[in-house]
Every structure is written in structure tokens, then in C-alpha cells.
Specification:
Number of helices: 7
Radius of gyration: 17 Å
Strand content: under 5%
Low-confidence stretches: 1-11
Largest sheet: none
Shape: elongated
Mean pLDDT: 84
Structural class: mainly alpha
Number of strands: 0
Helix content: over 70%
Length: 190
């Protein structure tokens, strides 16, 4: 493992991790926006295709956390990313089960997942502050935790829909985009 200074001012290891994170954040942005656009067409009820997409979102988060853990292993402990993988995998299973019970059950599971994974994202981003480009991830983690609580609360509405949970993906994606752009800018400035 090399820790010599790279041309960007970051260590070679940190620079490689930042580059990998930047690519991952671009992919996460694209996935979130496309997923939300497709899901908005089916937010009033849970169709079979909607159920598959609802389960796919936390599974995609598991895959993203795997990529993140592999790319950041050299720059720090990926322990919290493993926690995020487990939480997202449990969420996928929970959402699959909740889809059979209806929108309120899905909102409760989705909300619990958003809350816990938001807290994990917040802590991970705080630990990566020196890498640059993490303020959007810090904000995203905090907002995710708050949004999760609101999803659970909205499950008790008279006729709850998935619109708020689906809409949650778009700002999350935008935060990934901003963070990817900031990571690129930080590496050019260093």
C-alpha cells in the first residue's frame, strides 16, 4: 500500500479512493433519478413491478456499499459500510414482506431504513471530511434520518402513498452528484 504524495496533493491511496467514490457517486445519482422517475408512475398502489423496484432500491444500496468498502478499505476501516450493507439487506427483505401488506407497511420499513442508513451515512461522511466533497453527504445523511422519521409518521395518514418515499430518492441522488463534483474539484485544487 503506497502513501506517497500524488500530483493532486492527496496521497496515492486517498486519491484512488476519491476517484472510485466519485465514479460511484455519479452512478448512484443516475440510478436514483431513473428509479424515482419510473416509481412515480406507480406511487398510489403497489404493483408487482413496483414491488420489485421497491426491493431493488435497498439492494442497489447494498451493492454501492460493497463497492465503497472495497475502494475505501485502504483509507480507513469500512466497518460502518458493512453495517450499512446489513441494514440495507434487511430493508430489502422487509420491504419485500411489507409489499404484501400495503403502502403503510412499506412506508414504515422504508422509513426505518432511511433513518438508520442516514445516520450511518452521516457518520461515514464525517469521518471522510478530510478527503473533501463530503459536506453534501453529511447533509444527505442528516436529511435521510429526518425523512425516515417522516415516512414512518406518514404511514398513519388516511390514504398514504409512496410519493414522499419515492421523492426522497431524487434529493439523495442530487447530493451524490454534488459530492462527486466536489470530490473532483477538491482533487484538482490540492
Amino acid at each position: 500500500m503506497s502513501t506517497t504524495a500524488a500530483p493532486t496533493g492527496l496521497t496515492t491511496t486517498a486519491s484512488t479512493a476519491a476517484t472510485a467514490l466519485r465514479r460511484l457517486y455519479f452512478v448512484r445519482f443516475a440510478f436514483a433519478v431513473v428509479w424515482a422517475l419510473v416509481m412515480f408512475t406507480m406511487s398510489a398502489r403497489i404493483s408487482p413491478a413496483g414491488a420489485v423496484l421497491l426491493v431493488l432500491y435497498p439492494l442497489f444500496d447494498v451493492g454501492a456499499a460493497v463497492v465503497d468498502a472495497r475502494s475505501s478499505r485502504a483509507t480507513g476501516s469500512p466497518g460502518l459500510l458493512y453495517v450499512n450493507m446489513a441494514v440495507s439487506l434487511l430493508a430489502a427483505v422487509g420491504v419485500a414482506i411489507a409489499c404484501a401488506s400495503g403502502v403503510p407497511a412499506v412506508l414504515r420499513v422504508w422509513g426505518a431504513w432511511a433513518f438508520v442508513s442516514g445516520l450511518v451515512q452521516l457518520v461515514v461522511a464525517l469521518s471522510r471530511r478530510t478527503m473533501g466533497g463530503q459536506w453534501p453527504m453529511i447533509l444527505s445523511g442528516a436529511i435521510s434520518a429526518l425523512a425516515g422519521a417522516s415516512f414512518v409518521a406518514s404511514a398513519g395518514a388516511d390514504e398514504p402513498t409512496l410519493t414522499s418515499a419515492i421523492g426522497y430518492a431524487v434529493p439523495g441522488g442530487v447530493f451524490f452528484l454534488v459530492s462527486a463534483l466536489r470530490l473532483g474539484r477538491a482533487s484538482r485544487k490540492s
